[in-house]
Amino acid sequence: MNIPMSWSRTVAVRRLAAIGLALVALVAPTAGVAAHGPDPTLSGFFGPNQDLRYRWRSGSEPTSAIKSAIQAGAADANASRGSRAATFTYDSGGANPIGYGSGASCGVNGLACFTRNAPSGFTMWFREQGHVFDWGTLKWCQSYTTAPNGCYDARTIALDEFGHVEGLGHHVNYADNSDYNDAVVQTYSRTKPQSGYNIHSFQRCDVATLQLEYDMVNTSARYSTCLHLSTVLNLAASTSTVTPGAVVTLSAALKVGGSSAYDQLVGNPVSGRTVTLQRRTLGSTSWTTVGTMSAGPSAGTYVTSQAPTVAMEYRAVFSTPSGDGLVGDTSPTVVVSVGFVCLAGPASDAVAVPCV
Ligand SMILES: [Zn+2]
After folding, report:
1. Per-residue confidence at 349, pLDDT binned at 50, 70, 90?
2. What is the CA radius of gyration of the chain?
3. Distance between CA 182 and CA 180 in Å, rounded?
4. Dist CA 320 CA 303 (whole Å)
5. Cβ–Cβ under 8 Å, residues 3 and 187
6. Structural contact between residues 4 and 137, judged by C-beta atoms closer than 8 angstroms
7. 252, exposed or middle or buried, with CB in 10 Å at 0-12, 13-18, 19+?
8. Which end of the chain has fewer CB atoms < 10 Å from its terminal CB, N or C?
9. Measured between alpha carbons, how far is 167 from 45 in angstroms, rounded to an integer?
10. Does the pLDDT value for residue 21 go beyond 60?
11. How far is the CA of 186 from the centre of ligand 1 (A)?
């Protein structure tokens, strides 16, 4: 549902109280959700990349301008979901009707509304251009050649509704709404020319919840910066003892932490990041950076070869990156000893083993 924010605060509070029951039922925020966190969730989700087809509701088809806006909103949802969330595609035989007009079953203040029954399907309605609310008359920006101030962008409202269908509740904003543009799924819709009235992509706190509930597209994809996921970095050496100058391979593995709050993201391997190898001689207190580790043979792994001539301690470092919702970590230390090697068995099939 979208509720206009063009009335006074006093009136808004009264209206909210009147529709409070319906709003709570729709939003059902997770207990303890803090302001500026990922959007709250509704209950139930679709399958990964589930293909949801929609059609125009017979007898209640939108005008061509609103159809275009809704289809653009669907494309916006698909392009900006940043996850394996469901996709929306127009199909005249689609199972999920989208209607427009006086038949809309929205709450008294709703510009648009939805029903959902994941993973089966959904419905959606948009109020008609000129619909009279007791706060004023609805203007869809798309209904004008030159959109007037005070109009609602139907494409943005559609994106809010598609976000709900995915399972997103309304974002919980700071008291001063300074983070309003961190989410398009909002209780109060804005009108032209207010900031955020025409957002055409899911924003980071919408995407954060879509990632939590639908998982990432691949292991290299960046996490929403509305998330702050701890990571776990481990390091292993191919051998614990080498002869002087012989090669040892250091292998690091980076993954998302194991908090149950991370839902689908728990333990995800994390590829394509900058993981650095550091070393120090045994007994030294300061670390020297060797360099950036290379991509390893499997997702989330990083490798570097070393040829120590003296016993060495190694650790891997993943610094908290910018533009990525991951928190850095440093691996435990790995010791590689240097010793002479004895040959066991006849020379013809000798096996190198450390001297003891
Ligand atoms: Zn909404």
Report:
1. low
2. 28
3. 5
4. 19
5. yes
6. no
7. buried
8. C
9. 6
10. no
11. 5
pLDDT 10s digits, 69-101: 999 999 999 999 999 999 999 999 999 999 999
- The residues near 32 (Cβ < 8 Å, ≥ 6 apart) are none
Considering only 55-59, 101-105, 336-340, 348-352, which range has the smallest mean pLDDT?
A: 348-352
- 183 CA to centre of ligand 1 in angstroms: 11
Say how many Å lie between the CA of residue 234 and the centre of ligand 1. 42
Contacts of residue 195, defined as CB under 8 A and 6 or more positions apart, other chains included, come to 180, 181
Going from the Cα of 263 to the center of ligand 1, the distance in angstroms, rounded, reads: 23
pTM exceeding the 0.85 threshold for the entire prediction? yes
Find out whether 160 and 2 touch, Cβ atoms under 8 Å: yes
Point out which residues pair with 234 in neighbouring strands: 253
Q: Are 227 and 211 in contact (CB under 8 A)?
A: yes
Kindly give the distance from the C-alpha atom of residue 322 to the centroid of ligand 1, in angstroms, as a whole number: 30
Cα 75 to middle of ligand 1, angstroms: 18
Q: How far is the CA of 187 from the centre of ligand 1 (A)?
A: 5
CA of 168 to the centre of ligand 1 (A): 9
Could you tell me how many helices (H) and strands (E) the chain has, helices first?
4, 22
The sign of the torsion formed by the CA atoms of 177, 182, 186, 188 equals positive
**Whole-angstrom distance, CA of residue 205 vs CA of residue 155:** 19
| pLDDT single digits (tens) 162-217 | 999 999 999 999 999 999 999 999 999 999 999 999 999 999 999 999 999 999 99
Distance (Å) from CA 139 to ligand 1 centroid: 17
